[in-house]
Structures are given as C-alpha cells and as structure tokens.
Amino acid sequence: MTTRGSRAPRLAAVRILALAAASLAFAAAAASAAPGLRALSDEFDGTAPAGWSTLAGDDFGDGTAHRVSVANGALTLVPVRSWWVDDKEALYLWKQVTGDFVATMRVRVTGTQTDDPQANWSLSGILVRDPRSTHGNENWVAFRTGVVNDSRVYERKTTLRSHSILVLGSSPSGWVDLRVARVGTRFLLLKRNAAGRFVLHWSYNRPDLPRTLQVGIDAFSGDESPHADFVSTVDWFRFAPTGVPPKLRGARDARLVPYLARAT
Fold it and tell me: Are strands 231-240 and 140-148 parallel, antiparallel or unpaired?
C-alpha cells in the first residue's frame, strides 16, 4: 500500500523533471530562433545593402532620387525632401520579422556639407511597420535621432490609422545607438546612455500590429524647409532574440528591460 508520505517525494521529483523539461524546451526554442534573427543583421561590410527591401515613399523635392550606398563598412542614406508622418511615406529600408525581436542600430546624422543638418525635421532611426500599411491606413512605431528646430533630438512616434503622435527629447550628437524591442504587443524603445548602457526611453502597446512586421531604417529631411539637407550614416543594424523568459512576457516594462538591455 502506498502511503501519503511516500507519494510526496515522487510528486516533487515529477515537478522537478517537468520544470527541467520546460527549461530545456525554452532553451532549444531560443537557440533555434537566435540564428534566424541574427542572420538578418547587417554590418554593411559589402558594396550594397544585403537583403533589404526599399520604399522610396513620397518625393516633395525637385524630382531627384534618394541616394543609398554602402562603402567603408557603413550604409549611407541621403534622402530628398520628405517625411514620415500621418499618411506621408519616405525613404525606408526593411527586413521582414515575425514574433518578438530586438533591433539595434548605430547611426550618425549630419548635413551634406556641415556637422548639423541645415534643413528642419532631419531624422533617421528604426521604423517598425505593418506590412499592410497604405497612405490611407499607415500603422507603425518609430524611434529616431536627428535635428529639429536647430536642436539635436530623439523622436518617438506612434502612428495609428495614418494619425501620428510624436514626442521629442534631447539627444547627443555623434554616433547614437537606438534599440526597439518587441515583446508581445509592446514595443520598448531603448537608447544607449553616456555610461554605455541601454536604458528605457519609452514603450508603446500596439495590439493592432500583426505578428509579422517590417523592421528597418528610415531617413527624411526638409519639412518646414525649402529643401533637404541630411546624411544618415549607419555603422550597423543588428537583430537578436529578446532573451525574455516566457513567464515574464506579460511583466511590467521594468522587469523586461534588463533582458532587452543586454540582448546581443
């Protein structure tokens, strides 16, 4: 006859084995997902953007074309007069990503002849967009750096059904590291601070955005100016898994940030 006391160690052993199996399954899933995401990364060591799709967007300039090139280990974007806001579209290079991800870029923004762009609303960064978007129904989240009203800024912007809401904050000049991470329906925007650590800038909850998205690099210049004057130089753009354990995907932002900050 099996007593109640003799069942307890067996139940404990079963629980331990179940937890171990779950941990191994998660580790295996993370290992299989990581190469797929990381394979999308680009160090721009070649002579052309590798595997990126391109959207030219709307041209509010003189009919000239955006310039996109790769040389000396960097991607260079020189947009014509254009902008990403509301139902307007601009220059955009993207790759298709399904599920949770971390996307990170290192970017430096300048004018074509000067350290600072001489045209207003000159910005470049990470744009995460619903592939079904059209002029009449644009849906996306973006995190950028650049110059607005003669000041260096971060711009965070969320656009729902072609209606954009943006907020500006002070940004450093020189090379800037931007990061956007998706965890379920949330999109967390992180920036690298002066101490070299990624810290949370903001987060958006966008349950309307589908599981598969466009994720990539945008650049635009010249709103409220008669012409564009902007060069976005991208040192690299990297994709990685979030590293967030499944049981924490619904946790508060503060619980997620340590995982997202160290994603590589």
Answer: unpaired
